[in-house]
Amino acid sequence: MDLSPDKKIAGILVPLFALRRENDLGIGDLGALREFIDWAAEIGFKLVQLLPINEIGGDNSPYNAISAMAIEPTTLHFRPGSPDDLTREDFEVALANADVAKLHGGTVNYRHVKKIKRELLEKAFANFWQSATSDRKASFQRFCTRESGWLQAYALFRALMEEHNESEAWDQWAPEHQSVESARQWLYELPPDRQSIFTRRQDFFSSRHGAHGRHSIWRKLLQRRRVRPAK
């Protein structure tokens, strides 16, 4: 889109978490954003702008992200088949274990939202790892290689957060985890079985930005009929 002072256009700014729908999972997500883009285009808006959608930390603030690149996983849209490896059975089991009424009513309850969406992501990843074709796994590895400039350090950081009860305060972690170099040496020296488990967790955090991650999501959104990115 070419912007010029001589050609005025109108747009709308919205926080993604606020785009709520009747049967959402407690927070605005990318499914709602698709509908919002169509609505904005139909009434004549040319731009849709969002507040930051990078992955948030424990304070749930979009302005205090833990990554400059990683998308906030609670904004992903979940339903059977979305992502591809999420089965209807897994989806229904996760919802049956959740307090759906709390998810649908009132403001965003981040503790409940994060719990259920994390469970859905875990189930989808487990299914992918067990059942994906060699071509799909190879595609995932190509993605990891292509995005290694940020993804490797991010996945290591997120797996280390798990080691420290989801705390992003790295300066309060165990000394061997407080730098990339020492953390990688620590991982190298782990027993093989423990190393394998930790590496699988890194793969999980990488997978959140693969087939259903930030690149493919935004490419699909930008294919909406009338709304295009500003240059």
Molecular shape:
globular
Q: How much helix is in the residues?
A: 40-55%
Question: How would you write the strand order of the largest sheet?
Answer: 1-2
Q: What is the percentage of strand-forming residues?
A: under 5%
Query: For the terminal residues, how far apart are their CA atoms?
Result: 6 Å
So how many helices?
A: 9
Q: What is the makeup of the main sheet?
A: 2 strands, parallel
Give me the Rg, rounded.
19 Å
Number of strands: 2
Structural class: mainly alpha
* SSE topology string: EHEHHHHHHHH
Give a brief outline of the structure:
This protein has 231 residues and is mainly alpha-helical.
Written description of the protein model:
The protein is mostly helical. The chain has a domain of 61 residues. 48% of the residues lie in helices and 3% in strands. It has nine helices and two strands, in the order βαβαααααααα. It has a two-stranded parallel sheet. The longest helix has 22 residues.
Kindly list the characteristics that best describe this protein.
231 residues, mainly alpha, 9 helices, 3% strand
Topology:
Layout: E1 11-14, H1 30-42, E2 47-50, H2 88-96, H3 100-104, H4 110-131, H5 134-146, H6 148-163, H7 180-188, H8 192-207, H9 214-221
Parallel strand pairs: 1-2
